[in-house]
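TEACHING EXERCISE
Course module: macromolecular assemblies
Task: Read the component lines below, then compare them to the predicted structure of the full complex.
Student: A.B.
Group: 4
Components provided:
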Amino acid sequence: MTNSSDYVPPKVWTWSKASGGQFANINRPISGPTHDKELPVGRHPLQLYSLATPNGVKVTVMLEELLALGHSGAEYDAWLIKIGSGEQFGSGFVAVNPNSKIPALMDRSGPTPIRVFESGAILLYLAEKFRAFLPTDSTRAECLSWLFWQMGAAPYLGGGFGHFYAYAPMKIEYAIDRFAMEAKRHLDVLDKQLAKNEYIAGSEYTIADMAIWPWYGGLAKGQLYEAGEFLSVQEYKHVRRWADLIGQRPAVQRGRMVNRSWGELSSQLHERHDAADFETKTQDKLAPGNG
Ligand SMILES: N[C@@H](CCC(=O)N[C@@H](CS)C(=O)NCC(=O)O)C(=O)O
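Instructor-supplied answer key:
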């Protein structure tokens, strides 16, 4: 690869497989399946195909919150999609999400299965289906504004800051500066909002909190990209107060464990098919090779 300062783009870009960097093996400039593979279907109305990245956690938190509220129609099977092994390019997964990214949801509760992809769309779909965590009064607009803010902002944090600070094969000062500035600006936007409000959209816990917490809650607590010191995250005291508040919710603690395949074995529930799985099927409780 050419040193970034010497690089002159060619007239026509072509795909170089040797681009390097973490995740380079799953990046390609075309969409669609690479292999035939049907997705498994469990017994519950909702089938989730995901991984416990921040985008995945948004949805498992929402499902666990709905179940905690008593919505039995939100019972779900959560299947692990190993994106590092290219499982998002199987034909069955692509049929649920043509964009080949987790999370993807199939609602099989009605006569015709309904597919939903994009974490923000899934949160909104579930909130409308169960009439929960989306205010019906004047704060609805505020909640939707922050939900869509997150969907627009996170790629600058993950694909921008996270990529160039943590994953790129070389440290490029220009890129790191540009996206560190933007990540800090996002934290400041949130800090000002949370100085005046208990939750993101006001006094109520909503899908806006569920969307923002896995990204910016993690960042403010120094749990993302090992960038806590670099971004001086202790400055954002209102975001940190809110991150702790959300993190203490039992449904959030369960949601974080679902489809998690790294970290403490007791925090990894690779697949979730039953509420009891949290007690009996985490990786520390399963025999090796059984998960
Ligand atoms: N905007 C999408 C982003 C989803 C996304 O980027 N998912 C990542 C994991 S966090 C993924 O599946 N990556 C696999 C790939 O890029 O091939 C959403 O919010 O659902």
